[in-house]
Specification:
heterodimer; A: 153 residues; mainly alpha; elongated; B: 434 Repressor (Amino-terminal Domain); two-stranded antiparallel ribbon; 5 helices
Chain lengths: 153, 73
């Protein structure tokens, strides 16, 4: 099955919406999610109220860059659907996405002090930040080339 | 941009309107306006040749080098 460009963008938008719904659900049910998470892992039996609160803090603090990231991705997809690909606005959106990944990486690094597996999330977020940053550099270069081409008469 | 295009001067000398010139050389009036207002970043040889043909001039009559303020010693 090969998707057309429009279908592919629509699918990406649906995925972004799904992540937004998941994030909203996590924000609303953070307490129960943390309670369930701690309860189902024997290794976390030593976790008390303090660790639970720390985990909730990590989730709530991480939620802010996650929302900014998802909103920027949604707007980026909107611009792509409108045929605006290599424009400075998209470069700025990708830059924001990259910074959001970096913020999540730093937050997870700090959180690894009380729960080591956050380190894996930190590495994944850091790697994602690097990839998005390189894509942003490509977009910036392409936007400059397009600008040059648009003003070649 | 230190290269300036004196299209308006040449058009005035030849008594030719922008719309007419754009039609003759096969570019849009919007693009001709970009050229005329020195907003263009590059000019294709084909466009330059068409301009010279229609205005009966040489590229040197259209293009002028003016050093930018920061370029002047």
């Amino acid at each position: 099955m090969r998707l057309s460009n429009e279908q592919s963008i629509r699918l990406s938008k649906v995925c972004v919406w799904l992540f937004m719904i998941l994030l909203a659900a996590l924000d609303l049910g953070c307490y129960w999610a943390v309670d369930w998470f701690i309860g189902t892992r024997p290794v976390l039996l030593g976790f008390g109220l303090r660790e639970g609160l720390l985990m909730m803090s990590t989730i709530y603090l991480g939620s802010a860059p996650a929302w900014v990231l998802l909103i920027n991705l949604h707007r980026l997809l909107g611009a792509l659907a409108a045929g605006q690909v290599f424009v400075p606005a998209n470069v700025a959106r990708l830059r924001r996405v990259s910074w959001c990944c970096t913020a999540a990486c730093l937050l997870c690094l700090i959180s690894a002090f009380y729960y080591l597996p956050w380190l894996l999330v930190a590495v994944a977020a850091g790697f994602m930040a690097l990839i998005v940053r390189i894509v942003k550099n490509c977009f910036a270069q392409a936007a400059a080339m397009k600008d040059e081409l648009d003003f070649t008469i | 941009m230190s290269i300036r295009i004196n299209l308006d001067v040449m058009m005035a000398r030849r008594h030719i309107a922008a719309g007419e010139l754009a039609e003759r050389i096969g570019i849009t009036p919007a693009n001709l306006s970009i050229l005329k207002n020195n907003k263009a970043k590059a000019v294709r040889f084909s466009t330059l040749a068409a301009l010279c043909r229609e205005l009966g001039c040489q590229p040197g009559d259209l293009l002028e080098y003016r050093p930018d303020e920061e370029e002047t010693p």
